């Protein structure tokens, strides 16, 4: 990564409307090397737009003490990333944040230097809120995408369960002020759009999938010889992985089922203790944070994908599993039901017995039924093609109508 400070003032491209390449600025409170769905989407969007010929700039918190403007390589593409001075959030293992009152001061010169055709904020919380006000004052078109779920913050904020609803109401009222500045508001699913529309008092919200490049994933030609249950994602409290671990010993013994957990997070020590208490050390593998290639290999070799989380606005990892031809067993919560339609089963959130029963249904399915679930996953993923997502956002950036 090499530093390349932005000092010159860019000329506007005049590309809003028509088909000329755009100068796009993406502002996010989390961006790789952070590992989470919002960061993954922001990176995928930035890389995809750059590959389609647009000039892309990213504004995000610094991932260390070093801040400034850098040329960073992401997925083989070099992006201009403006890293703002950040600080570690004390209640979280890795999250870094920018002081809210400093955002406008630091982003105003970046906007003046880059002069983007459009600003696409990925949240209203810190950077998005500040830079949206600066862009609005400059007449820059604003698109806002929401990845925020209150449940994702329950474990990381110093609020009690009784006071949290009040804090969240205040936060959503504040969010509405930011979203009112946007020319278009999006979120990954119809359910998430309904949720956001209610939270910000009825503003129009478009449902646009985060998208996935299915060509990067490989489905096996036949059924695996073993019965490996796979989870991919952050090993965080809201993922409810203890429910998945407790379900494993309830499966029929003759299945010899195993569990592979791919991802890092603060819950790993507690889960390892639980695994030992249940006598499952030879049946549960913690792969940790792995390369994209190793993650895709784990999905290809898995038998079924499990997602016990109750705080998913889309679940990119579930989409990755579907692109790998896996049946999916997911909690009947938030947006996950939209991903289950003949390709697996929903279970009652938090219900260990029900999760075990649904996993057993997949693992004990006949060859014909199992193959039908795999084929259904592969068929459903076509609606989430990344090129469709990129084309839709290009239209929004240009001010064109989208369905």
Automatic annotation (TrEMBL):
| Residue intervals of the Glycosyltransferase subfamily 4-like N-terminal domain | 35-216
Q: What does the UniProt keyword field contain?
A: Glycosyltransferase, Transferase
One Gene Ontology molecular-function label: glycosyltransferase activity
Q: Where is the composition biased (Low complexity)?
A: 1-14
The segments labelled Disordered in the record are 1-20
Instruction: Note the superkingdom of the native organism.
Output: Bacteria
Q: What Pfam families does the database record attribute to this sequence?
A: Glyco_trans_1_4, Glyco_transf_4
Q: What is this protein called?
A: D-inositol 3-phosphate glycosyltransferase
Q: Which organism is it from?
A: Curtobacterium subtropicum
């Amino acid at each position: 990564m090499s530093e390349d400070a932005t000092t010159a003032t860019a000329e506007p491209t005049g590309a809003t409307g028509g088909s000329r390449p755009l100068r796009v600025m993406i502002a996010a409170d989390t961006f790789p090397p952070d590992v989470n769905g919002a960061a993954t989407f922001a990176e995928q969007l930035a890389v995809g737009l750059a590959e389609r010929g647009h000039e892309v700039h990213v504004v995000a918190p610094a991932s260390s003490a070093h801040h400034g403007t850098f040329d960073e390589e992401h997925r083989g593409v070099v992006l201009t990333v403006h890293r703002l001075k950040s600080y570690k959030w004390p209640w979280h293992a890795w999250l870094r944040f920018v002081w809210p009152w400093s955002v406008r001061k630091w982003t105003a010169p970046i906007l003046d230097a880059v002069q983007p055709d459009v600003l696409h904020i990925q949240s209203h919380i810190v950077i998005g809120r500040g830079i949206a006000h600066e862009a609005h004052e400059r007449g820059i078109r604003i698109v806002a995408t929401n990845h925020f779920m209150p449940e994702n913050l329950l474990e990381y904020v110093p609020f009690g369960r009784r006071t949290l609803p009040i804090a969240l109401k205040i936060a959503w009222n504040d969010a509405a002020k930011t979203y009112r500045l946007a020319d278009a508001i999006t979120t990954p699913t119809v359910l998430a759009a309904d949720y956001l529309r209610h939270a910000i008092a009825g503003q129009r919200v478009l449902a646009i999938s985060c998208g996935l490049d299915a060509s990067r994933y490989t489905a096996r030609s036949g059924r695996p010889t073993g019965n490996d249950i796979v989870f991919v994602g952050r090993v965080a409290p809201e993922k409810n992985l203890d429910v998945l671990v407790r379900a494993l010993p309830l499966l029929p013994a003759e299945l010899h089922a195993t569990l592979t957990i791919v991802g890092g997070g603060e819950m790993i020590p507690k889960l390892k203790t639980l695994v030992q208490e249940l006598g499952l050390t030879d049946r549960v593998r913690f792969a940790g944070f792995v390369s994209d290639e190793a993650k895709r290999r784990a999905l290809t070799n898995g038998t079924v994908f499990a997602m016990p989380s109750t705080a998913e606005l889309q679940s990119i990892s579930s989409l990755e599993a579907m692109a790998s031809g896996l049946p999916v067993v997911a909690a009947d919560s938030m947006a996950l039901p939209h991903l289950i339609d003949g390709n697996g089963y929903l279970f009652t959130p938090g219900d260990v017995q029900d999760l075990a029963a649904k996993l057993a249904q997949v693992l004990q399915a006949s060859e014909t039924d199992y193959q039908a679930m795999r084929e259904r996953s592969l068929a459903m993923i076509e609606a989430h093609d990344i090129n469709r997502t990129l084309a839709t956002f290009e239209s929004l950036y240009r001010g064109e109508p989208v369905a």
